[in-house]
Design goal:
The protein is an alpha+beta fold. The protein has four helices and eight strands, in the order E-E-H-H-E-E-E-E-E-E-H-H. Strands 1-2-8-7-6-5-4-3 form an eight-stranded antiparallel beta sheet. The chain is globular, with a radius of gyration of 15 Å.
Length: 162
Amino acid sequence: MSAMTSSGTAMVTLPTDTQILITREFDAPKHLVYQAWTTPELIKRWWSGDRGEVTSVVVDLRVGGTWRYVMTANGGFEVAFHGEYREIVPNELIVATEVWEGMPDAQAVDTHTFTETNGRTTLSILVQHSSQEHRDAHINSGMEGGMQEAMDHLEQVAVSLP
């Protein structure tokens, strides 16, 4: 399976003092990456990376609908995120809020853009925080290692879809 996937190199940059930009290319067409990104049974297969087990995924994929993902980390503690969908263009764009429930005052707005070239998809996620303090807390949480693993698993799920 891993021979079919990219090297797992999501690029993480900081365009401004309040933003994080994550860009990752997948060896799959955008409708499959989007399907893996938005389907609860599929999210359960990739979202936790190698860091634990996803125990709950709720996705109400419509403007004004909400999402919530919960995992039990390998250390036995629970990690949960939730948000609300603000804009959706199927297979192309999702804008949603994101709240880590361990820091409920630090709501971010995530803009997910799916673009396809020659059967490969680039997913760009722009995370807009309300302050540099919240952005820095997000970066310093150790999110990158888990995110890289999750993106690797996401690609494996996407390429496995019919």
